[in-house]
Design a protein that fits this description.
The complex is a heterodimer of chains A (about 200) and B (about 375). Helix content of chain A is about 60%, strand content about 0%. With about 200 residues, chain A is mainly alpha-helical. In chain A, helix 1 crosses helix 2, helix 2 packs antiparallel against helix 4 and helix 4 runs antiparallel to helix 5. The longest helix of chain A has 27 residues. Chain B is built from 12 helices and 9 strands. The chains are: A mainly alpha (about 200), B alpha+beta (about 375). Chains A and B meet through helix 5, helix 6 and helix 7 of A and helix 1, helix 3, helix 4, helix 5 and strand 3 of B.
């Protein structure tokens, strides 16, 4: 593993965050996608309750108004709860799980052992839901919704990233700050990073 | 300190998945004690007989070095493991992701195939409405709705008035009830269904609609249409209830519930309609606020046209068939919007609906 500059080189939080984004681009991307998906979900929920059409194409095959006003736009049962609300929940949880992993790297701690499998299962739930909605769009409604498609792609990308992280679950976490070499054991420190002991990496 | 480092080395072995579970030994094969003794030779023997501080310090230093060596070995194994896992073929490293993408693409391809499937053979009575037809009925463009407007037809609805005015007929969940009563054999029902499916698809989704023709022995025989028998409709804005009382040969089909029968008996009769038309079908009650009997247009222009031919013209505002169907659909939409509190807004505020609502309220 490449040696890193000493912690003193990264005094500002911003610089540390940039370094964190570079060292964990997959987690950073998942967090940003969760924010984007949450934003779109909030927007679609708002237009649902306002009873107006989203800003999008409304003619031909690409017709988000038809999709968002269809019976598939609400949860089964009373209350006409828009389906965007569980979508918001999904992105909040997904972003939260990515944040937990990022904080573990930030603090030089182990990420929880359940994290990757939980995130993978959560991503799988999201993908099943997305495929159901794509089925409704293509097979039942014969219409595609741009906003929904963006949300579906964000979910797919998140799922692929968590799948990749799950595949790499045996490898060491990225190290945010370097551990000063001490008595010739720099390799061991940089590789272990306090993973198994659960203690802070020595700074 | 030495003990602490030894533990760290042990943890690292476990992390690296070592199956032996035995402490790592120096490269020369000697155990830790031997290594220590081997380094110090006779001095070590003297120290055993009479241990001194310097001998213990030397022993500690040796233990530190051994522990450090173990840690280095463990780290090297970790790095090697990582390299091995990352140095496999690109396909080998990425197979879970590639598999997931392939599965998703295949599933979506199946969806498209299902979307484009048509009933075996040509379209026939009783078969599911092909996507190529239903998609055009439910996918009329906004510009077509706007260009056609009222078309050449007069308002087919009559405002249900009374003292007091009849209450809005709502389902238990608060959605207004749109009741349709018709029959498969009925040619005017056949015409009306094109507009009904078109208008109602702006508020919700039909499922399991089937192709139908009106009676071959009635007026405007064999008018191509759909049947609501066996279909379902879901909408967050309204509750559409359809009853096809007879099939195209006049055999009994669906029955009205007592509530539906009560509405039919009350509103398909004077003073809501002319006495001569009492009990006529098609009958449409828009939450008991607007009543329509018979069709908004006569199906003469549809004679001889297949389902597909009618559907293919539905985005042509210059087609006489389209003008009749779409104009009637606009009237139905305007009537429904008045009982859904103008929801959805993208339908109820789009031209020409607001103007038609105003005209209907004015009795035009």
């Amino acid at each position: 593993m490449a040696r890193l500059p000493a912690e003193s080189s990264y005094e500002s939080v911003g610089a540390r965050m940039l370094l964190l984004a570079r060292r964990a681009p997959d987690l950073t991307a998942m967090l940003l996608m969760a924010v984007a998906g949450l934003g779109i979900s909030i927007y679609l929920t708002t237009v649902h309750y306002q009873g107006v059409a989203p800003v999008c194409n409304t003619t031909g095959v690409i017709d988000c108004a038809t999709v968002t006003s269809s019976s598939f736009s609400v949860l089964p049962g009373p209350g006409n709860i828009p389906i965007t609300i569980p979508g918001m929940l999904w992105f909040v949880v997904s972003g939260g799980l990515a944040l937990v992993a990022l904080l573990a790297i930030w603090r030089g701690r182990l990420e929880p052992s359940w994290l990757r499998m939980t995130h993978l299962l959560w991503g799988l739930v999201g993908m099943i839901f997305v495929l159901y909605l794509v089925y409704a769009e293509i097979v039942v409604l014969h219409r595609l919704c741009e906003w929904c498609t963006v949300v579906h792609l964000l979910t797919l990308a998140t799922f692929l990233l968590v799948l990749n992280r799950w595949q790499l679950r045996g490898l060491p976490l990225p190290v945010l700050v370097a551990t000063p070499a001490r008595r010739g054991e720099e390799s061991a420190v940089s590789a272990t990073s306090g993973r198994k002991s659960g203690r802070r990496a020595r700074h | 300190m030495a003990k602490k480092r030894t533990n760290r080395g042990g943890a690292q072995r476990a992390y690296n998945g070592s199956s032996s579970g035995t402490p790592q030994r120096p490269a020369n094969g000697a155990n830790a004690t031997n290594a220590t003794n081997g380094t110090n030779g006779a001095k070590g023997a003297t120290a055993t007989a009479s241990p001194s501080k310097s001998a213990r310090a030397t022993a500690d230093s040796q233990s530190d070095r051994i522990a450090a060596a173990r840690a280095r070995n463990a780290a090297a194994r970790a790095a090697a493991e990582r390299r091995r896992s990352m140095q496999g073929g690109w396909l080998r490293r990425r197979w879970p992701i590639i598999s997931a993408v392939v599965v998703v693409v295949l599933i979506i391809a199946v969806f498209f195939a299902m979307s484009n499937r048509t009933p075996s053979g040509s379209a026939s009575i009783g078969s599911p409405v092909p996507a190529s037809i239903l998609g055009k009925v439910t996918g009329v463009s906004q510009s077509t709705y706007e260009k056609v407007g009222k078309g050449t037809i007069t308002n087919p609805f009559k405002k249900a008035q009374g003292n007091p005015p009849p209450p809005v007929n709502k389902a238990a969940d608060g959605r207004p009830i749109i009741l349709y009563v018709g029959a498969d054999y009925c040619p005017f029902c056949a015409a009306e269904r094109w507009s009904l499916v078109m208008a109602l698809s702006r508020f919700g989704t039909f499922k399991d609609l089937t192709l139908m023709q009106s009676s071959s022995t009635d007026t405007y025989p064999n008018t191509n249409t759909f049947s609501f028998h066996g279909s379902s409709y879901t909408s967050q804005y309204l509750d559409f209830q359809s009853v096809e009382t007879q099939d195209r040969t006049g055999q009994k089909l669906d029955s009205l519930t007592s509530a539906q029968q009560a509405i039919f008996d009350k509103y398909d009769a004077p003073p809501y309609i002319d006495a001569q038309y009492k009990g006529s079908i098609p009958f449409i009650s828009v939450a008991n606020q607007y009543i329509e009997i018979s069709a908004g247009f006569i199906p003469d222009q549809m004679q001889g046209m297949t389902w597909q031919e009618i559907a293919d013209k539905l985005n042509d505002p210059n087609s006489s068939v389209t003008r009749s169907i779409v104009a009637n659909a606009n009237y139905i939409t305007a009537a429904i919007c008045q009982v859904t509190d103008n929801k959805p807004a993208n339908v109820c505020t789009a031209a020409p609906i607001p103007q038609m609502i105003n005209d209907m309220k004015a009795g035009k």
